[in-house]
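Supplementary Methods. Inverse-folding protocol.

Structures were first reduced to a discrete structure-token string of length 445. This string, shown here, constituted the complete conditioning input.
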């Protein structure tokens, strides 16, 4: 199934392209639904902001925790059967989420979506590896990430039109349609990968590996600190949609604002990675950790901009934007830049933290940072929204005036979380280096 070893090429087997298109459909479904998920659960299902934070936090964090276990299942039933199962689950999950907007059905539907998404992740990336050799693997994954970004961008773009023209529930129906399209594509065109002579991990081995990682206190503390960075980044989905719509109105475009991040990453990740290639990984990550809290401060400054320039600021010609939109775009753009500094060097640093014979194991569990950050970011978002930017439907008419005067304080709190993470990373590295010097171990920077 793989290309000829040793020869650079852009030619890959049909299954490779089938998987990429299926991944595009899955990402369009996921990001289209995810950008509107907190809105849907609060407006249509009836969860409070706090309840929504807990529900979506559990959903998103488990989406990053479960793939390791679902990968073991995929090994046993075969990649094609695993993908068919995954896209069937996603189709049913998204459709039922839109069709039955009750609290119990929403939780069941989200659990089904989570399981389907957790199966897709390891199978698609496994297919990319199997359809390429060591020489062409970088090209294979560069194509894969382009399809991911196209899916992410287009899904959020469609979500806005559906939200305004038809209603939030139709975003879930759109997601179900994308998942069904992926199911049909895989059923017709996907060819199973050859698994002859491959070692298959069982659940017992996976749990043993997880315990091995958890016992490494230094590694877990590092992931928790980096989780602070991603918890601020996660507010693009946790807080931003409700914040912009409640303060600006239904004309706001949280879906488009969320696309600022991948746009900046695609534009700058290669030049920034090249710029900091000679820096120690920890130094590059420190730059990211400095930028992240500043992004929160930038967003919090929207009332200042509104006092200076009014609520309708001319940008280019007849194009005008609300100050919140402008500062939100700047803040999210800064987060994209921070991601360009951190993401490429994060995995490099993880590989250095890992024992030399267990690098693959530690790289696999590096996504625990997302598990930690998503549960924290969505839960805290629910409490902060309830306190500073409440659902207008929960307020009496006489409470509406002045209810959002301090809404921008939310972003100061997120900036504070970012600064704590920055200080923690600095202290972590100093303490680790001191311990290593004491034991005559080379410093890990």
């Amino acid at each position: 199934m793989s290309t000829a070893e040793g020869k650079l090429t852009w030619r890959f087997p049909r299954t490779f392209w089938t998987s990429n298109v299926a991944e595009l459909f899955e990402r369009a479904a996921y990001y289209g639904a995810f950008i509107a998920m907190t809105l849907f659960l609060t407006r249509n299902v009836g969860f409070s902001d706090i309840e929504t934070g807990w529900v979506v936090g559990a959903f998103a964090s488990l989406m990053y925790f479960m793939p390791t276990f679902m990968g073991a299942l995929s090994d046993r039933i075969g990649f094609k059967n695993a993908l068919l199962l995954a896209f069937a689950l996603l189709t049913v999950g998204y459709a039922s989420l839109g069709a039955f907007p009750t609290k119990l059905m929403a939780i069941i539907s989200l659990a089904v979506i989570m399981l389907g998404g957790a199966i897709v992740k390891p199978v698609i990336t496994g297919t990319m590896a199997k359809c390429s050799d060591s020489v062409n693997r970088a090209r294979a994954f560069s194509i894969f990430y382009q399809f991911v970004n196209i899916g992410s961008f287009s899904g959020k773009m469609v979500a806005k039109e559906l939200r305004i023209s038809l209603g939030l529930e139709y975003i879930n129906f759109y997601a179900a349609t994308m998942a069904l399209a992926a199911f049909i594509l895989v059923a017709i065109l996907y060819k199973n990968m050859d698994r002859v002579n491959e070692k298959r991990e069982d659940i017992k081995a996976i749990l043993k590996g997880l315990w091995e990682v958890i016992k490494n206190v230094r590694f877990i503390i590092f992931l928790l600190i980096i989780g602070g960075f991603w918890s601020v980044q996660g507010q693009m989905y946790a807080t931003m949609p409700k914040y912009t719509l409640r303060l600006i109105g239904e004309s706001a475009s949280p879906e488009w604002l969320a696309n600022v991040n991948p746009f900046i990453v695609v534009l700058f990740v290669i030049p920034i990675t090249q710029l900091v290639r000679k820096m120690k990984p920890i130094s590059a990550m420190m730059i990211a950790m400095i930028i992240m809290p500043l992004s929160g401060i930038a967003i919090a400054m929207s009332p200042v901009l509104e006092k200076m320039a009014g609520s309708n600021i001319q940008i280019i010609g007849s194009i005008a934007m609300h100050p919140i939109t402008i500062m939100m775009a700047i803040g999210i753009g800064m987060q994209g830049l921070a991601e360009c500094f951190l993401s490429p060097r994060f995995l490099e640093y993880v590989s250095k933290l890992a024992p030399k014979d267990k690098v693959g194991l530690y790289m696999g569990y590096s996504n625990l940072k997302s598990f930690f950050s998503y549960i924290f970011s969505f839960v805290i978002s629910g409490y902060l929204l309830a306190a500073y930017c409440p659902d207008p439907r929960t307020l009496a008419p006489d409470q509406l005036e002045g209810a959002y005067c301090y809404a921008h304080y939310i972003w100061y709190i997120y900036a504070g979380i970012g600064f704590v993470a920055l200080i923690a990373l600095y202290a972590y590295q100093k303490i680790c280096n001191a311990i290593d010097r004491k034991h005559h171990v080379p410093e890990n920077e």
